[in-house]
Design a protein that fits this description.
single chain; 814 residues; mainly alpha; two-stranded antiparallel ribbon; 26 helices; 11 strands; elongated
Length: 814
């Protein structure tokens, strides 16, 4: 229950605060300035909320003051049931209910969730660690700016308390003593809670209190607060404009565009004030009537957005391949992700949107209804009609390649969004009665699609679950051998490393010289190309020969692609079994054209042993499982929001797969861990037999397909990676050809991650070969190591014709 309430009430605020902070940080690139910006943006966003709450509190206090005489008289004169009955009668005559007294605490009730959201975000923000700001030595620790007699004193919490006391004194002027004592108690409580917390959090809350002080001075002390605020905002904008553009502009155009927009916003209060003075009739027309809109319009649009973003979009992703969102060792139905996302979306659109709507004036409520209605229309059009065909996406919602949209498409999408907004305004103006009906139709459509996807997902999950557990449920405690090699017979091993890049191999040997001995007897073919850039094109000819090249498969239109794929996978196992070999097949790629290989394609050959090893063993994987679930939960929500945004906003929110996260997602891919664990366990999965039997093993492994940032020099799985003491870019040069593993000058990007996984995979293969030598089966075993295709990381320059598109994707390993 607590988790549900946290997800519904607090998590949307945490995500909102994180998104605002990261947006400001990406422009200013300084954590301290980002905290100041965060405080300003959040306070201005919720200022109307607090002003409305203050108005409700004042009305409540006035009401209580007007009733005080007779309430005190009844309490003094009567007792027991008689007092209760008379008080209830008096309250009823005054159209008052005792619960209305809660209105006097509404500001406090609003502060608590926002404080919790900021507390949770800034208290755990590791990017603040070691960052100084002005006199603050470390934003990630208590400030400790003053030392007296050997005692360290945190100055920021004390400053925060002083500001809070002054602000409270101004705000509560004329209030009863009980309200003043409540304000004082709250101030002291914040001092206790925040005294030893990170300086970044205390700085944020201090700025909030400073903002509150300024607000109280403007509203309680100044005679013309609106005029002063408008003038101050314009002066501030002019100052920032002067400071910003007097310097030489750098190449970050997005930064200057955002700052220019922010500066323009600072002039809006002054423009609005001038319009009110000079064109009152025009302003009145803009404001419209003060007629209260129907709340059901707001609620229906909010429900539509909740179901679309919260349930339908995540469910659609999972339906495409449910098994990718399942951990074989700790099975849970992946429906939990859409359900969690729905609660989160409900918290954002229904709960917090509803709170803002409830506290708004009638004019503002009308704006809320229009915004929600137009957002619903634009969201469904963006999701249904745009952003399709973006390529493969992982189980943590990261695309293989960053989504790119042509400029004409972006402009067309933007024009369409503007047209839809205009249409929504016209419908609201002339056919307002249609809006609830349109929302209901949309909700029913979303519900119908969701039910259809849910049925499909459960059906696929049932069949894929059967495939996943076809070879047993696996065990994290004990690893049983699944294939055997003979010391007296002949052994043949085909080890297909999915997406291993061919031209990296000599640089891998230079990085790990011991591999030359471990791979003795092998021949590396340096000029090998694949027949395609993906597994469904590259693996059939690899396993089945020339009859299964894309050209030859296309000539045979009498069979489906899935049947041709299965035929190619079965060719070698059948030939070896017919010649008396004991056959074992592990993870046949795309068997049955499913992500988790459908082992039933070999059911006509009962003597063949088949296994799906990926994800069957917990070693090296279970420690990351909780973090993957957390990343997936977060990314599902931001992915869903991204898919409903205009195209120009989708890539900034996607943020190269980080979704504007303040903390980097784990740099170790989940798929890499599942496959890499198998490579680590190869000695334990191998049974050595002294029988005179011939064996054939076909093993596909995806460790080289995914990405991981590993710790040098041993390329280990660690929570934090720092290779600055080990990486030398000049080291990676052979015969005058240099391998470029840097991205923006650092060995942390896609190039180096691919190098890491290839090195780590070969290190484990080398250890397995040492084990085979030790057991006496290496010399009588013929081994082929290959890949179905390469990948475009552009680590080598001038080795391909630049006119050949994605040439690096064809550079496979043999």
């Amino acid at each position: 229950m607590l988790t549900f309430l946290y997800t519904l009430l607090i998590k949307p605020l945490v995500f909102m605060i994180e998104l605002i902070y990261m947006g400001i940080y990406r422009v200013l690139l300084k954590p301290g300035l980002a905290i100041i910006g965060l405080s300003l943006v959040v306070n201005f966003l919720i200022l109307p909320l607090y002003r409305r709450a203050d108005a409700l509190q004042e009305a409540e206090r006035n009401k209580q003051d007007s009733m005080k005489h007779w309430v005190d008289h009844i309490k003094k004169t009567f007792k027991g049931d008689e007092r209760y009955m008379l008080l209830q009668t008096y309250y009823r005559q005054q159209n008052y209910h005792p619960l209305y007294a809660l209105k006097s605490s509404i500001s406090l009730l609003l502060q608590i969730p926002f404080f919790i959201g900021a507390y949770l975000f800034l208290s755990n923000l590791t990017m603040l660690k070691g960052c100084s700001f002005g006199p603050i030595p470390d934003l990630g620790s208590p400030d400790g700016m003053l030392t007296v007699a050997g005692i360290t004193i945190n100055v920021l919490p004390i400053l925060m308390t002083v500001i809070n006391l002054v602000s409270g004194a101004i705000y509560s002027k004329g209030f009863p003593l009980s309200s003043k004592l409540q304000q004082l108690a709250l101030t002291l409580l914040f001092l206790v809670l925040l005294y030893d917390r990170p300086a970044g959090l205390v700085l944020y809350w201090t700025l909030n209190n400073l903002f509150s002080l300024g607000k109280n001075i403007f509203l309680k002390v100044l005679k013309h607060p609106k005029e002063v605020f408008a003038a101050a905002a314009a002066v501030f904008g002019t100052f920032v404009f002067y400071k910003l553009f007097r310097k030489k502009m750098d190449s970050n155009r997005i930064k200057y565009l955002v700052l220019t927009l922010v500066i323009l916003v600072t002039y809006l209060p002054l423009v609005w004030l001038i319009l009110q003075k000079k064109c009152p009739k025009f302003v009145e027309r803009l404001r419209g009537s003060d007629e209260k809109p129907k709340t059901k319009t707001f609620l229906l649009a909010a429900v539509f957005l909740t179901l679309l973003i919260g349930f339908l979009i995540p469910l659609s992703v999972i339906t495409a391949s449910p098994i990718e969102f399942v951990n074989k060792l700790d099975y849970h139905n992946p429906i939990r992700y859409p359900l969690w996302n729905t609660v989160l979306a409900a918290g954002l659109f229904l709960v917090w949107g509803g709170i803002f709507y409830y506290l708004a004036s009638n004019r503002a409520k009308r704006v809320f209804c229009i915004v929600y209605f137009a957002s619903s229309v634009c969201a469904i059009v963006n999701y249904m009609a745009f952003g399709k065909g973006l390529g493969q996406i992982s189980s943590i919602l990261v695309f293989d390649d960053t989504p790119m949209f042509p400029t004409p498409m972006i402009l067309a999408n933007l024009l369409l969004m503007i047209g839809l907004i205009v249409l929504c305004l016209l419908i609201w103006r002339f056919r307002r009665s249609l809006v609830p009906a349109l929302c209901i139709i949309g909700i029913l459509g979303i519900a119908g699609l969701s039910v259809s996807n849910l049925v499909t997902m459960q059906s696929r999950l049932a069949s894929e679950k059967e495939m996943l557990f076809a070879d047993g449920e696996g065990s994290s405690d004990k690893v049983e051998p699944i294939f055997r090699l003979s010391t007296k017979g002949k052994n043949v091993i085909v080890l297909m490393m999915d997406r291993a890049i061919g031209y990296l191999f000599p640089y891998i040997l230079k990085q790990r010289p011991e591999l030359k001995e471990q791979l003795s007897g092998f021949t590396w073919y340096s000029n090998t190309l694949a027949y395609g850039t993906h597994t469904n094109f590259g693996s059939p000819p690899l396993y089945g020969g020339y009859e299964y090249t894309p050209l030859e498969m296309n000539r045979r239109s009498d069979l489906l692609l899935v049947e041709k794929q299965n035929q190619a996978l079965k060719l070698m196992p059948i030939l070896f079994e017919e010649n008396g070999y004991e056959v074992t097949i592990c993870d046949p790629p795309y068997a049955g054209y499913t992500w988790t290989p459908d082992l039933s394609v070999f059911s006509d050959f009962p003597d063949m042993k088949t296994y799906n090893t990926m994800g069957s063993y917990a070693s090296g994987y279970s420690q990351f499982d909780e973090s993957y679930s957390s990343i997936r939960d977060r990314n599902f929500f931001f992915y869903s929001v991204m898919k409903t945004l205009p195209l120009f906003a989708q890539r900034p929110l996607y943020d190269d797969g980080r979704y504007c996260a303040s903390e980097k997602p784990n740099e170790v891919s989940e798929s890499f861990l599942k496959s890499y664990t198998v490579l680590q366990l190869l000695p334990e999965l191998t049974e050595i037999s002294d029988e005179e039997v011939d064996t054939f093993l076909s093993l596909c492994n995806k460790a080289t397909h995914e990405t991981a940032l590993l710790q040098m020099p041993d390329f280990e799985l660690t929570a934090k990676v720092d290779n600055s003491d080990y990486f030398d870019p000049d080291f990676y040069e052979i015969d005058g050809v240099k391998l470029n593993l840097l991205n923006q000058g650092e060995p942390t990007g896609l190039r180096f991650k691919h190098f890491c996984i290839n090195v780590a995979s070969f290190m484990q293969i080398g250890k397995w070969f040492d084990y085979l030598r030790e057991k006496g089966v290496y010399d009588n075993t013929r081994i082929i190591i290959c890949s179905d295709h390469g990948y475009r990381i552009n680590a080598l320059e001038n080795i391909y014709d630049k006119n050949l598109v994605d040439a690096g994707k064809f550079d496979c390993l043999l």
